[in-house]
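Below is a filled-in request sheet from our internal design queue. Each sheet records the structural input a requester submitted and the sequence that came back. We keep these sheets so that new team members can see what a complete request looks like end to end.

REQUESTER: design group, bay 2
PRIORITY: normal
MODE: inverse folding
CHAIN LENGTH: 616
BACKBONE (tokenized):
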């Protein structure tokens, strides 16, 4: 029996793949054996991409991938391949972009059907097992595609070719485009005009942190002296710090808010979000001296150190959104946010009466709640309002809240905790280095610089070998080849540490990283920098990463790195490459300035270095 007739995920390192190792679906990893089987058997590939902290990935796993009937349909007619997007970001980038081009949206779980040559012919995200939410059922979707594959192969192949061509064109640099005037002011002005003036941030439904825009606004404030830029940035920062996106008991930020008012989040916690937010709140403190921002920085850094740090110095990737509910709720079904929300009764069980009333008023904890009959904590009353209400001094209110936080942390620690994915992802740890260095310089705190050096040491010891980086690390195993984001973000973090400390310990690694960017990712022919190494041969196209998405743009980060490194390194032809990179990306950036904030910061990096010498 062929190995593709069995679930092969048991031997995979990824915790996300391990979550699917007991499915009746004969899942295959993204490897040559699975791809060869598709060609040998002339079967389409069903590619499912997700990650361990993804709520809807869990839902589809429980509803569909654990169902014997659906598993039989998949195993009989497809080669099912499961991919952890954190382990294989390039695979996700290619097919996520295809989903965006075809449907106008993307997300996870990503569901793609491919020919044996890896060309896509059908796309989607989450499918329910039966028709609901206005979505086709997964069963009928599979049946339709099997029928089309068997009876109309010519049309399937033609569509796959057409979509692949569209992907190739999307990732190629544009020619014959008039010069663009795109710059930092373009981004800042657009960010102001598109902002939600009532609730802060950007968007009318879901709200993401958009840290690149905030950093661009703060830099533009210093460069151009326009207070409206700072006001727009701080309005977003205030909304996030007081709303449900922030964990008011344990510190740190959730993934994004599901509503315009920033009340209810998607509860997963990602290292990259917290690293980026730690940095922009530190920058905002430098710009405003608002003590609330310092508190957010310190609580977020403490949360990361206590709950997401590898014993040897790196940081883990994600904490799941779901967990079993506390015993006080009389339910044993795993649910999203159960670890983080509270009821009035749960507060009363933990805190003495007056303190409990203060906390319930401070954080808006009510019997009806704001999420599944529980409450996501938000700042609902000021310290002054509480002092008036309870006839206490503001100092007494603050003392109550400080003590309450300790007691609530202790009580929450008794609840079933959500799962932590302990992969150490290189790019995300690069972001963490940069953020810790920024906080160390702004707050003159040597402990943060020590933590940054520990992350650098971890990368050098576990993720760097013979001048090359690996994508990630788990259980003493290195993961896959690194993407441009890993090189760019680790490089910028290393540069920030080197400049802030004048310690040249990591300069050889920095030089090797920059040289590898030129050698592996830079294409001299078209003047473009790509997300994947030229050595890869398992993708139908070579993607780029010009726009800010969950992470800052890799291209923009390279611009920041090369511009900032001119005084630190002696590598040649940096200016030429910077000019060519900008010529390929500026036309696209001028049409979508808010998606290219990191590019704009990169363009202004020289000025950034002058204004904020010491922390890039």
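RETURNED SEQUENCE:
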């Amino acid at each position: 029996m062929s190995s593709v007739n069995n679930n092969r995920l048991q031997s995979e390192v990824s915790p996300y793949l391990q979550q699917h190792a007991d499915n009746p679906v004969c899942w295959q990893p993204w490897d040559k054996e699975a791809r060869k089987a598709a060609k040998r058997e002339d079967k389409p590939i069903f590619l499912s991409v997700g990650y361990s902290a993804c709520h809807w990935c869990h839902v589809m796993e429980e509803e569909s991938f654990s169902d014997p009937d659906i598993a039989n349909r998949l195993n009989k007619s497809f080669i099912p391949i499961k991919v952890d997007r954190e382990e294989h970001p390039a695979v996700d980038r290619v097919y996520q972009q295809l989903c965006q081009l075809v449907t106008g949206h993307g997300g996870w779980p990503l569901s793609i059907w491919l020919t044996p040559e890896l060309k896509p012919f059908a796309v989607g995200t989450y499918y329910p097992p039966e028709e609901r939410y206005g979505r086709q059922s997964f069963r009928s979707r599979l049946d339709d595609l099997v029928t089309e594959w068997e009876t109309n192969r010519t049309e399937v192949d033609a569509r796959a070719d057409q979509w692949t061509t569209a992907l190739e064109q999307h990732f190629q640099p544009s020619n014959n485009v008039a010069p663009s005037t795109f710059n930092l002011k373009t981004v800042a002005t657009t960010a102001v005009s598109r902002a939600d003036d009532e609730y802060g941030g950007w968007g009318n439904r879901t709200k993401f942190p958009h840290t690149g825009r905030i950093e661009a606004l703060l830099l533009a404030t210093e460069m151009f002296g326009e207070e409206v830029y700072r006001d727009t940035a701080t309005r977003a920062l205030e909304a996030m710090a007081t709303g449900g996106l922030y964990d008011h008991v344990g510190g740190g930020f959730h993934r994004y808010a599901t509503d315009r008012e920033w009340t209810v989040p998607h509860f997963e916690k990602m290292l990259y979000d917290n690293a980026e937010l730690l940095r922009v709140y530190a920058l905002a403190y430098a710009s405003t001296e608002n003590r609330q921002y310092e508190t957010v920085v310190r609580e977020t850094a403490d949360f990361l150190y206590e709950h997401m740090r590898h014993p040897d110095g790196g940081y883990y990737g994600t904490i799941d959104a779901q967990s079993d509910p506390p015993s006080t709720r009389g339910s044993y079904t795993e649910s999203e946010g159960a670890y983080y929300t509270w009821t009035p009764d749960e507060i009363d069980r933990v805190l003495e009466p007056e303190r409990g009333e203060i906390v319930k008023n401070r954080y808006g904890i009510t019997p009806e709640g704001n999420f599944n009959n529980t409450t996501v904590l938000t700042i609902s009353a000021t310290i002054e309002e509480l002092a008036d209400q309870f006839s206490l001094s503001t100092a007494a209110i603050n003392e109550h809240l400080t003590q309450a936080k300790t007691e609530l942390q202790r009580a929450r620690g008794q609840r079933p905790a959500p799962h932590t994915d302990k992969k150490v992802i290189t790019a995300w740890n690069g972001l963490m280095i940069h953020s810790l260095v920024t906080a160390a310089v702004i707050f003159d705190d040597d402990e943060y610089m020590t933590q940054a050096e520990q992350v650098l040491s971890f990368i050098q010891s576990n993720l760097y070998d013979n001048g090359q980086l690996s994508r990630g690390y788990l259980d003493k195993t290195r993961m896959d080849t690194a993407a441009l984001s890993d090189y760019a973000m680790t490089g910028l973090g290393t540069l920030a540490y080197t400049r802030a400390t004048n310690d040249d310990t990591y300069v050889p690694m920095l030089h090797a990283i920059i040289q590898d960017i030129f050698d592996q990712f830079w294409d001299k022919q078209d003047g473009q920098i790509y997300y994947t190494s030229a050595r890869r041969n398992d993708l139908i196209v070579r993607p780029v990463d010009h726009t800010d998405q969950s992470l800052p743009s890799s291209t923009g980060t390279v611009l920041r790195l090369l511009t900032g490194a001119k005084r630190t390194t002696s590598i040649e032809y940096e200016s030429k490459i910077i000019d060519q990179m900008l010529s390929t990306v500026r036309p696209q950036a001028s049409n979508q300035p808010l998606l290219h904030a990191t590019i704009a910061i990169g363009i202004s990096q020289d000025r950034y270095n002058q204004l904020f010498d010491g922390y890039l």
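SHEET NOTES:
- The two ends are 57 Å apart (CA to CA).
- The chain has a mean pLDDT of 94.
FILED BY: M.R.
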